Amino acid sequence: MNKKGNQMDSTDIVIQFVGYSNSGKTTLVCKLIERFTQMGIRLGVIKHDGHDFELDQQGKDTWNFRQAGAPMVAIQSATQTAWMENQAVPLPELITRMSEQGAELIIVEGFKRESYPKIVVIRREKDKELLDKVQNILAVVSWLPLQKMSIPVFFIDQVEEIFQFVDRHRLVQNKKTKENK
User: Fold this and answer.
1) pLDDT class for 7, splitting at 50, 70, 90?
2) For residues 127 and 90, what is the distance between their CA atoms, to the nearest angstrom?
3) Taking CA atoms, which of 10, 22, 33, 174 is between 20 and 30 Å from 166?
4) Which residues pair with 119 in a beta bridge?
5) Which residues contact 19 (CB under 8 A, 6 or more apart)?
6) pLDDT given at position 181
7) Straight-line distance from the first to the last Cα atom of the chain, in angstroms, rounded to the nearest whole number
């Protein structure tokens, strides 16, 4: 449910940013997060890590709980909560959880093989191959001049235009969801 009390299909509010390592995805996503936050849009952001990561700190209580065998550990303070599981939670489940917590837009960085609407970020010439490897591409953000395409192409520094494109996508998807009820 969104903050206005309307039930939403969580897949309608997802947009992925995909590209190879060091393409500028995270920097771009951070700039978009700032803009959406300024508008008062409640965001969820999911990052794929192709390597194993350790969020916890060795020797801290939560780390000790996990080392002792707890498959799920949560920590909470007055201002934040973290939940750690010793398993990979499928992307659709993460999206559903965020949607249920009121996310009005969920930005996913990575997960190239998933089928959600995507913006492909291209930094180097060889990165163009990604355009043939992923599905459901809405737009391209590039560091390089590209030939005319059938989808919108933005330069990496066109943050405001990219923001407006993503926001229009969000609004159109929200409208479609409401019309289908």
Assistant:
1) very low
2) 26
3) 22
4) 17, 139
5) 25, 120, 121, 122, 123, 127, 130
6) 63
7) 14
